[in-house]
Structures are given as C-alpha cells and as structure tokens.
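Researcher: Structure prediction, please.
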Amino acid sequence: MLNKFRPRRSVLMAMGALALSAALPLQAQDVGDWPNKPIHLIVPYAPGGATDVTARIVSHRLGERLGQSVVVENRGGANGTIGTSAVARAKPDGYTLLLNTAGAQTLSPLLYDTADYDGLDSFEPVSLIARLSFVLVTHPSVPANTVQELVSLIKKTPNDFSISSGSAIMGLMNEHFKSIIGAPEVVNAQYRGTGPQLTAVVSGEVQMTFDPFHGMAMIEAGRVKPLAVLSDKRSSVLPDVPTMKEAGIEGMDFTSWAALLAPKGTPQPIVDKLYTELKAVLEMPEVREQLENIDYEVVGSTPQELAETIKNDTARWAEIIKTSPYKPS
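Model: Predicted structure follows.
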C-alpha cells in the first residue's frame, strides 16, 4: 500500500529537471552577461610607480577583450593596505579587481594592523602577470665597482653608509643585506615610496639602494651605478651586471611581482574568464614589449599557481621577520 504514495523515480527526475531549469536563468544573469558595465581595477599605490604602469599597460587591452572599460583607480597609502583592504571588502561580482604586488599582498598583512585581510584567504587569485627584480645601485661617488668592493668599504667605515628604502619589502631587504654582510651600523633610511628612495641616491643623500628598475634612465645617464641584480639570473636590460650570487652574496635572491586578484567569493566562471582574457593580453607582442622594457618577466600564471606563489612568499617573509630588526615607520 505504501508504494503508491512513494513518488516514482521518473517523477523525481522531472521535478529535479524543473528546479534546475528554474535556476539556470538566474545563473546566466549573474555570470553569463558579465561584464555589462565598467570594471574598476584598484592599484593600492600612487600613480607613476611600477604597479600603476603595469595596470595601465594591461587594463586597456583587457577592457577591449571583455567589451567593457577597465578603469584604473589609485588608492595608495599605508604600504598598499588601504587599496588592498578596499578590494577585500568589495562585492564579489567581478566589477572590482585588484592589481597588487608581493609587498602589499604577502608582507603587509604580517606587519601592519591596518591590513585587515589575509593575502590568500581574502581573495580569488586570477593570474601572476609578471615578476620583477631589483638592482643594487650606488651614487657614482662611491669608490666601488663591484659588490665585494662595496662590502669592503662598508666594513671599514659602516657609519659612513646608508641605504634607502621606500616600502616595507625594501626595508626588510635592506636589513637582510646588512645582516648577511655583517654591517648592522649602516643606516636604513626610510622614504615614502620607491621614487623618493631612488632620488635620495641620485642626490647623494644616501649611498645606495635596491631599485625595482624604476631608475633605468638614471642608470643610463650615469647618475647611479648598478652593481648587481637580485634575481637568480641576469637582467635582459642589464646583461653585464652580475647577480648577487655571482657577486658572492648568497641569500639575496629577491623578486617582487604584479598580479591580478578578485574579492573572495567572486564566481569561478568570472575568475576563469578573467584568467583566459588576461593570458591572451599578455601574449600580445606589444604588451610583452612594454612590460619587458621595464624589466618585467611576463608570466601569465594560472590562478592555482598564483595561489601557491602567495602562500610561499608569505611563509618566506614570516621567517625573515622573525629575526629582522626592521620596524616600519
């Protein structure tokens, strides 16, 4: 008797199909017609820096492929945490994106209370756009043409030397370098931004810095002197300059990066489309040339690869912070 009251399998399947068909229009409206208005790409730094330049190189082409404008917005301040926090809190609908660096994404959450976000758990990684290296430069008046000559000078009179930093990542790199060469007395001079950081060397206010290849014009003009790059291989734009490892300094293989991310909870189809279209943009010869001209190594990683990069970088900075005397200003 009870069997006649039990819904038949065919009836259950029909009911399930009806429910699914009712849900599809909503799903199509949420994802299928995206984007149907301009997208805001937040850069958590001031205009003119490497991150801003990267955003402007990529945004126009990405907008063309998506069929909507991608508008770059600079929300600088607090070592990148203001703009990054804003994206972490934004509605996850694909209309607010973040173009960020290793510093604000992986280091700032370890150093600053203002970073009310987690570098990985608060975001949906889209793609690692490119990696960038640093170059150790000195004022031309410093009588050293190699890293070893510079280290010898520093060890003789460490109080006569200072090294500028324009961000937390630079400050930690400076302290790490001082620790490796055994010269804690060298002043770690903190500035607000990598532009002022380089200007301090050009003017002779400090003797050296690790420049993120902003200063190629200054290098070419002879206003600063390059001694070594911090990547694991030589730079294509400075092929005659050795790596730090080649120069005899281990443990200074630092690179930063630029990456595209979205707020946590952004629908996976949107993340996938962003990745696909960004990858196509990064394969354009003119885009690659523009990025390579500022010594960016174009990557175009998958979302999963970017997530692994964020995880690994966060762990490395956490270890460095444990033993570093660096205190952010």
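Model: The two ends are 80 Å apart (CA to CA).
Researcher: Thanks, that helps.
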